[in-house]
Amino acid sequence: MSLRVGIVGLPNVGKSTLFQAITRKQVDHSNYPFCTIDPNIGVVAVPDERVDKLAELTKSAKKIYATVEFVDIAGLVKGASKGEGLGNKFLTNIREVDSIVYVLRGFKNDKIINTQQNIDIIRDKEILDTELALKDLETVEKRRQALDRDVKAGKKEAIKEMGVVKKAYDFLEKGGILSEQNWEEDEKKILQNYQLLTMKPRLFLLNGSETEIDSETMETFKKNNWSYLIIDILTEFDAADLKPEERKDFDLPTDLKINDLVKESYKLLDLITFLTTGPDETRAWTLKKGGTAPQAGGVIHSDFETHFIKADVINWLDLLNMGGFGEALKKGLIRTEGKDYIIQDGDVIEIKSNA
């Protein structure tokens, strides 16, 4: 299960440099708008010390981490919802990702062309929000028109759907972002069918040093509970291929904040990690928070869900502290769980099935 995270922003804000720093993949990051036309795609591992330590414990032949697929999408401009710039292509690419990272320019560098008159993070965020909301408004309006006949005919499902569609339309018309609205679970299911852009979880990456981001901007993000990271992308790019001791020699940060971005992107969709470990491999698996033991089995192999019997479960740290499965079993730390068990982040499991 590889998650797709779209990297979006106005032209020349550092998207492609960020992508290259994350994936170590060479892409065109020239200093002009629209140098990225087709989305670059790269799959990266989610850093996880649990995989490393469990692999060492069970002497695994290989380690497999959870992954995130990053998609570097062409720069958006004002009017994209009406086809300006690479608008329609840009917006189509966003539909295909699970979540979005907004890259917002905070750095001050006259050598890098700024398509806006000045540096203004909040304004740039609002441009992106507006273009996505306008496209959603168009999508919702088309659906409203399509439902009209069935609603007049008194069809219950159509009437219910129309109520949700109108609610979304009214919210978008006021400039709202759908993911920031409170929705009932059945309403969410209806809206998910439309692949609405502003329903996707968002993380804001403020590109610059902490001294370049003004306090008023920071207060606005905190007040609105917008998830954000401050990362100097160019510094991260320069440090990406160096070892920690080499970074120190060049006066670069020893710990990469890029790793935080990968982890936060993974959390953005309310996911947890469970693990399997043994001589063949130690592996991190992705599951939606609240998922059951049979569903975790289904992630490993579809037959494990349909033919699930039970699961042996232990927290990864308990297993590590016991020095292995043998001692953990003696101490009674390995539990047998049934089909109703909710998997917890960090569970090490073994599925028993009659598949």
Descriptors for this entry?
alpha/beta, six-stranded mixed beta sheet, three-stranded mixed beta sheet, 20% strand
What does it look like?
The chain has 355 residues and is α/β, with parallel strands linked by helices. Helix content is 40%, strand content 20%. It has 14 helices and twelve strands. The strands form three sheets. Strands 2-4-1-5-6-7 form a six-stranded mixed beta sheet, with helices on both faces. The model is unreliable at 26-37 and 83-87 (pLDDT under 50).
Q: State the end-to-end CA separation.
A: 22 Å
Tell me what portion of residues adopts beta-strand conformation: 15-25%
**Which series of helices and strands comes N to C?**
EHEHEEHEHHHEHEHHHEEHHEHHEE
Proportion of helical residues: 40-55%
Q: Give the low-confidence spans.
A: 26-37, 83-87
Draw up the topology in text.
Layout: E1 3-8, H1 15-23, E2 40-45, H2 49-57, E3 62-64, E4 67-72, H3 87-95, E5 99-105, H4 121-152, H5 156-173, H6 185-192, E6 202-207, H7 215-223, E7 228-231, H8 233-239, H9 244-249, H10 258-267, E8 271-277, E9 281-288, H11 293-300, H12 302-306, E10 308-315, H13 316-322, H14 325-330, E11 335-337, E12 347-353
Parallel strand pairs: 1-4, 1-5, 3-9, 5-6, 6-7
Antiparallel strand pairs: 2-4, 8-9, 10-11, 10-12
Helix pairs in contact: 1-8, 2-13, 4-5
